[in-house]
Amino acid sequence: MNEAIPATDQQGDAVDSESPFQHLHPLSIILKSVSLLGRNIILIGVLYFSLFDQNLFYTGLAALAIIAVVFGITALVWSRFTYQVEAKEIRIKSGLLNRNNRSIPFDRIQDVSLEQKLLSRLLGLTTVRFETGSGGGEDGALDALKLADGETLRDIIRDYKSGAVAVEGSPSAALQEEESAPIFAMDNRRILVAGIFNFSFILLAIIGTIAQNLDFLLPEGFFDPRTWIETISQQDSINGLSMAARIGGIVAAIASLIAVGVVSGIIRTFIREYGFRLDRVDTGQPGFRRRRGLFTLTDMVMPIHRVQAAIISTGPIRQSFGWYHLKFQSLAGDQSGETDHSAAPCAKPDEIDPIIAETQVEQLPQDAEFNHVNHAFWWRDSVIIWLVLKITALGLGFFVHTGFFALILLAIPLIAIQYLNWQHHQYALTETQIFVRSGWWKRKLTMLPRRKIQTVDISQSPLDHPLDLATLTIGIAGGSALAPLRIMDFDAEKALSLRRQLLPS
Amino acid sequence: MVEAISSTSLETPDLSTEIDESRLYNQGLTPLHPPQKSLIRLRAAIRAGFLLILAVVGEYFLQRELALPGGYIVGVAVLIALALVFILPHRIYRRWGYDMGTEQLRVLRGFMWRTDTIVPFNRIQHIDVAQGPLQRFFGLSTLIVHTAGTHNSIVTLPGLATADAEDMREVIKGHIRQDMI
């Protein structure tokens, strides 16, 4: 089904304008149909329960019709999607109604990443994504090709970028990489450790949601705390138990909650980080190649010169055991939805040092002087917390139940946390870099080379004007738009002078 | 309220006091083109109009349902509308300021939430000069500067005389370097 080549020679210096327009692998029709159906399984369920009054025959017919329609459309879309690999660019023609003719020059492609979801792996396919570094989203994806074809395409682009002429069937550089040791890798024991620290209540939340939706199966008032209190106080058997046993029961309940959290954290971490491997590669341009994943295998390369900043995050418990998480910020987003590329999810400092040494980011010098921000960071928020809690406690205490007066005690831990957060919010400036620490529980150290700074904002909220404070926001290419690099509650004068140092006019 | 400003100079005699006063509030930076204040006032008047309509409708329904003594909602809305149209535009206008340095652009904006942004010229990816329909009526344009940063990926400077905006664009274009990320 290869189309004849239209006369597009005038558009480029394509050495090989005779390269055929290729389709994606036909099995990708099955791939996309299955994923579309999977998302619409709720629709089928709704049809079953509501529309057809649980009549299996009609639902079956409707389900078959839906499957046929989905397969049909996917096949149509497949037939209209073709790509052509030229010497210096790749051309993609796609679209059923709106025809889209896109040309991606190899120069603009930072790298090619290969991703294999579980079903793709079973079918021997892979999704090829082109990272062009244009903020937010990739520029093109071929979903899906045969694994060998995907790797060949990646090698063609890499060879182009390393200056070699693109020859068909050139030996892949992948073989050389397999032989050299990775710069960082996680074996199963390390993933287990990472999982233990990734304590997560997701399983609990999922179970809770399922339980809530199936609540017609559970006894009346399962979710109402008052019924529980009544039943427990009515149970003579529980009153008969000694105090120790009652406390033991509560402890066991809390322990099981914690166990659920730990297990779900471990499972999630295994799924995401299985086989984690970071290699230092030099195909076309220096970069880090990262492979990981249990069900969805991802294989991507991050060019080193695109790294804007390095972030080392940890927590108080993690730090006491010596585990840190290294991430890089760059313009292209990580496919798994994180904004920062995770380079070493769970590593000791001496494992992180060689990775950072490869980039242009410098490590924290031994004699770096960290400065604190203004004390108002903690006392201003504390005042607000205390006021809000007092009003809530008084209001609820008078109108609902006298027990709510105790709510004001919540102020003590909250204010303590604010103070600790202030303690941990520091910055340091060297000749070439700026280092910012933030957070007590979620600790983050951002290491940013000064020449990567794009813009610097000094902003004041209405609560800052009277105190003469300001917040310094540093814009960098990459990272989250919602949580940029900030130094909060600076003295306004110091903020202006720091900015003058960062952006000398 | 539309003063006919045909020259690009901002120092016409009857406006100099106003401009000097705004220099007090925006740290001595260049203030925006004076018709911008009229534009702010016009936009505020439109919003105040909507607010009053909503207040009247709300009042009517509340009267019907609860039979309360009338006038509260409309009264509050009228006060807010008066503040929006008569008090705020001047204060908002005088807090705006910009400075075209030799190497960077500095923009000051905001009345309650104040922001002071510096964009070095060599970080600018590309520039737009845009003009909405209301702005065309007053002879104003907006300079939109795109950077590679995720935060502040767009920095806007409205309320410039169109000729000024285009001059600034030419100056900045001369400074755009290739791929500073």
Model description:
Chain A contains 16 helices and 21 strands. Chain A is of the alpha+beta class. Chain A is globular and about 75 Å long. With 181 residues, chain B is α+β, with helices and mostly antiparallel strands. Chain B is elongated, with a radius of gyration of 20 Å. The A-B interface holds A 133, 135, 306, 308, 331, 452, 454-462, 465, 473-481, 484-485, 499, 503, 505 and B 101-104, 110, 112-120, 123, 147-153, 155, 181. β19 of chain A pairs antiparallel with β3 of chain B, so a sheet runs across the interface.
Give a brief description.
The complex is a heterodimer of chains A (505) and B (181). Chain A is an alpha+beta fold and 505 residues long.
Helix-strand string of chain B: HHHEEEEHEEH
Number of helices of chain B: 5
Largest protein interface, residues of each chain: A-B, 30 and 24 residues
Cα gyration radius of chain B (Å): 20 Å
- Order of strands in the sheet with most strands of chain B: 1-2-3
Q: Features of this protein?
A:
heterodimer; A: 505 residues; alpha+beta; 16 helices; B: 181 residues; three-stranded antiparallel beta sheet
Give me the secondary-structure topology.
The complex is a heterodimer of chains A (about 500) and B (about 180).
Chain A: E1 22-23, H1 27-39, H2 41-51, H3 56-79, E2 82-85, E3 89-94, E4 100-105, E5 111-116, H4 118-123, E6 125-131, E7 140-146, H5 147-161, H6 174-179, E8 184-185, H7 188-197, H8 202-213, H9 225-234, H10 236-240, H11 243-273, E9 277-283, E10 285-292, E11 297-303, E12 309-314, H12 316-321, E13 324-329, E14 341-347, H13 349-358, E15 371-372, H14 376-399, H15 411-423, E16 426-429, E17 433-438, E18 443-449, E19 455-460, E20 469-475, E21 485-491, H16 492-502
Antiparallel strand pairs in A: 1-2, 2-3, 3-4, 5-6, 5-11, 6-7, 8-9, 9-10, 10-11, 12-13, 12-18, 13-14, 15-16, 16-17, 17-18, 19-20, 20-21
Helix pairs in contact in A: 1-3, 7-11, 14-15
Chain B: H1 16-25, H2 35-66, H3 72-95, E1 97-100, E2 104-109, E3 114-120, E4 124-130, H4 133-138, E5 140-147, E6 154-161, H5 162-173
Antiparallel strand pairs in B: 1-2, 2-3, 4-5, 5-6
